[in-house]
Amino acid sequence: GNTPSAIGRHGARPGDEVWVSGELGGPAAGFTMTSPANMALRRPNPPIGLGQALAETGSVSAMMDLSDGLRQDLARLCAASRVGAVISPEKLPPHPDVSGAADALSMMTAFGEEYELLFIAQVGSAKLIQQAAAPFGSHPVCIGVVTDRADDGARLEGVEWPEPRFTHFGEA
Known about the structure:
The protein is an alpha+beta fold. The protein has six helices and six strands; from the N terminus they run βαααβαβαβαββ.
């Protein structure tokens, strides 16, 4: 993706925060219903340069594209950094077409094709992050925390991860 080579998936440390660069679930909504979200799926608008801007804050330790959905990609990042993570489902930012849907959590975590970034940042860097993202029209959200339980992997607080959704790009 567009993430700078200087920041990979390996730098997350226990106590860091887990962030996403913007709303989740638009592509899943576009695939499952006829709505403006179809535009999110057909004409993705990746935030070119956003990764670099976030990297330049100096507070981001790991980053990757959310191409396979939060569940799979967060698991990969945790494995690479040898950490765990706990995500608060109520903090996930839903795309407008996802809000209120019965399977909103599934659309936000289990579909992928998101053109957002998953990144890890030091506690206390929220203001820097928001300032870096503002020129891109991006509104990053802190969704959880990195833990030292590498064996526990990435989990949702209080609920199980939804099953992976069907995707039309071959493997689920």
